[in-house]
Amino acid sequence: MELCPFSLHFQSRTTVKSQALVDFIVEWMDLNEPPVSDVSDHWSMFFDGSLNINGAGAGILFVSPNKDKLRYVLRILFLASNNVAEYEACLHGIRLAVELGVKRLYVYGDSALVINQLNKVWDATHEKMDLYCKEIHKWESNFYGIEYTHVVRDKNQAADALSKLGSSRAQIPRGVFVQDIHEPSVGTDLVEKQPIEAMLIDDATPTTRSRGWRTPFIRYISDGSGFQDKTENERLIRRSKNYILVDGKLMRKNASSEVLLKCISQDDGIKLLDDIHAGSCGNHAASRTLVGKAFRAGFYWPTAVTDAEKLVRHCEGCQFFTKRTHVPAHEIQTIPSSWPFAYWGLDMISSSRQLQVCLRIN
């Protein structure tokens, strides 16, 4: 009765046609279109370097778009640091990718230094690292696209295990490719020769040895003039990236901070080290501590470490109060248990009932 004002009428339910069910199913069901393939043409490369007492090694893992895996182990047979091993792994991996015909590549590594320098986020201040970056960037022209991504070590365990196989010189399992590297891929001359600044000083005459190391850099930065020798000139160009001129004075860029270091002559550097070492506030510190204090004070010269070691070796106070191993003057002799009695002049006479001690009268 309460619904009568609303003009509601009852209508009985009719038979549902089968076509209605078909239309309902078709409306709420996805069309059977062919699935879109999620397989792309991008390859993934994981690399890692390792260094231990046996030597250095590197590992490379390729993952194809079809999830196939290729494993490579590099045994580095020359003297190398961990960063060099990381760069060797990345460079050889990219070369292998070119040989495999890869055109799109994702590169993953757990070394923040290598990845950030390749992405040009960090500056490659070290000469050898800069050469590796340039060499890798040359190979990038063989790809349609390449991307460097930093990953944590837990996501790079496969490449890490391969690198440890190369550094430990362990037996390589089946299915893993092995390659021995006898010399660096870049900067071969840097391994056999000393750093550029030391070479420039060695080439100088004795009269200009202490103050002439700054002259080539000042000339090159100011007017672009360098050495006649092509090799020396290339080294000068690479090294000059770390220096700038401020009001005509040579300053060196500091990799750890934005503070510029004032470049001084070798004679001034030796005087500075002597003042820090044995001056009014000196404490006769070790050579590395001296160099660290000099650099933190804002000064730089290329032979600082060598000069500090020489100063400490010739310091009379350091040699007199140096730590010495306390070794006895003669060999230690075993003291038998009867020796005290013989020294005191006593004889021990034992019997079944009592022990008698008699004085020996000489």
Strand proportion, as a percent range, falls in 15-25%
Number of domains: 2
* Number of extended strands: 12
Mean pLDDT: 78
CATH architecture of the largest domain: 2-Layer Sandwich
Distance between the termini: 147 Å
Sequence stretches where pLDDT stays below 50 over 5 or more residues: 190-211, 350-362
By CATH, the superfamily of the largest domain comes out as Ribonuclease H-like superfamily/Ribonuclease H
- Biggest sheet record: 6 strands, mixed
Number of helices: 14
CATH fold title of the largest domain: Nucleotidyltransferase, domain 5
CATH class of the largest domain: Alpha Beta
Rg: 38 Å
Order of strands in the sheet with the most strands? Answer: 5-4-1-2-3-6
Q: Give the SSE string.
A: HEEEHEHHEHEHHHHEEEHHEHHHEE
Give a quick set of tags describing it.
elongated, 19% strand, Nucleotidyltransferase, domain 5, six-stranded mixed β-sheet, alpha/beta, single chain, Endonuclease III, domain 1, 12 strands, 2 domains, 362 residues
Task: Describe what this molecule looks like in 3D.
The structure is a single chain. This protein is of the alpha/beta class and 362 residues long. The chain has two domains: 42-188, 2-Layer Sandwich (Nucleotidyltransferase, domain 5); 196-320, Endonuclease III, domain 1, CATH 1.10.340. The protein contains 14 helices and twelve strands. It has a six-stranded mixed β-sheet. The protein has a four-stranded mixed β-sheet with strand order 7-8-9-10. Helix 10 packs across helix 11 (287-296). The longest helix has 18 residues, at 82-99. The chain is elongated. The termini are far apart. The model is unreliable at 190-211 and 350-362 (pLDDT under 50).
